[in-house]
Design goal:
With about 325 residues, the chain is an alpha/beta fold. The chain has one domain: NADP-dependent oxidoreductase domain (TIM Barrel), CATH 3.20.20.100. It is about 35% helix and about 15% strand. Strands 3-4-5-8-9-10-11-12 form an 8-stranded parallel beta sheet, with helices on one face. It has a two-stranded antiparallel sheet with strand order 1-2. Strands 6-7 form a two-stranded antiparallel sheet. Helix 6 links the parallel strand 10 and strand 11. Helix 1 runs parallel beside helix 10. The longest helix has 15 residues. The chain starts with a strand and ends in a 13-residue tail after the last helix.
Length: about 325
């Protein structure tokens, strides 16, 4: 896959979101299946793997990724995030989110940042993190202070590039004034537009874009009819039984375009996203090698201006039922 740039960082155009490899995210799974998925992604040409210290219990996701990449570390860009695994005795800084559980808690105080990174390095079995993000801006800590602590890690050689996740345009500018930002991670897909002001700021500053949930939590594959027990997506309004049924009906015109173009709906969704910006890297997650290969094949799809216009017209009428934005409160 032809490389794309995130700031000065180079990576394949389709990454891999590892969150789905931990139990309790998209239903039950096991480590053997997770490690096979990572190897399938490597073999399909993926170079960037995205995880976080808060995915799974006790750093499970990072540790699984570290084991799976043993012996192939030099082939990949390792990206991880911090702030959710709050140290014992540290205060939880809570903020509202648009999911059913109502709030999340982080602590991104500078005094804890090096400890977060050192634990992630142990979990990932590596001596450097290629791209390191505060998972969410801490509502009680100036973002510039958190970024300053990550900048110290860059200077110390523990981190190569700074990223931001779930920020506003103003927050991106604030952070970039402290230390160059390679990438901003943003929820972006056919059924969840990114903030135009944030996209404009990223382009102006030369900051790359990493699209999380680029397949709408799997919905945009056109295969999600119901959810099993233990599936994290049950916390999202768009996946409750009535909304999911309505959304599948409303998505039919886009599925029809995919069929006419001889593409799977998921491949069309990723190809469409890649056409939105030359510096966006979607990070879909999957545990199935065939789905991973299909996701990666989106990088080779070339959509004409007419194709894109037809898709955009169908999306303009899509109007998904239910909240879909994590930060829509």
């Amino acid at each position: 896959m032809t490389a794309r740039t995130l700031g000065t960082l180079s990576t394949a155009p389709i990454g891999f979101g590892a969150m789905v490899l931990s139990p309790g995210m998209y239903g039950e799974t096991d480590d053997d299946r997770g490690e096979r998925a990572v190897l399938a992604a490597l073999d399909a040409g993926v170079t960037m793997f995205d995880t976080a210290d808060g995915y799974g219990a006790d750093g499970h996701n990072e540790r699984l990724l570290g084991r799976a990449l043993a012996g192939r570390r030099d082939e990949v860009v390792l990206a991880t995030k911090f702030g959710f695994r709050i140290p014992e005795g540290a205060e939880a800084h809570r903020f509202p989110v648009g999911y059913a559980f109502g709030e999340l808690a982080v602590n991104a105080e500078p005094k804890y940042v090096r400890g977060y990174a050192e634990q992630s390095l142990r979990n990932l079995a590596t001596d450097v993190i290629d791209l390191y993000y505060p998972h969410f801006p801490d509502p009680r800590v100036p973002l510039a202070d958190t970024v300053g602590a990550v900048a110290e890690l860059v200077e110390a050689g523990l981190v190569r590039h700074l990223g931001l996740s779930n920020v506003t345009a103003a927050q991106l500018r604030e952070a970039h004034a402290v230390h160059p930002v390679a990438a901003v991670q943003v929820q972006w897909s056919m059924w969840q537009p990114a903030d135009p002001a944030l996209l404009a700021a990223a382009r102006e500053l030369g900051v790359g874009l990493v699209a999380w949930s680029p397949l709408g939590g799997g919905f945009l594959t056109g295969t999600v009819q119901q959810l099993g027990e233990g599936d994290f997506r049950k916390n999202l309004e768009r996946f409750d039984e009535a909304n999911l049924r309505a959304n599948n009906d409303r998505y039919a015109p886009v599925r029809a375009i995919a069929a006419e173009l001889e593409l799977s709906p998921g491949r069309l969704a990723l190809a469409w996203l890649l056409h939105q910006d030359d510096h966006v890297v979607p990070i879909p997650g999957s545990r199935t090698p065939a789905h991973i290969a299909d996701n990666c094949a989106a990088a080779a799809v070339r959509l004409s201006a007419a194709d894109l216009a037809r898709v955009d017209e169908a999306l303009a009428a899509f109007a998904p039922a239910g909240k879909g934005d994590l930060l829509d409160v």
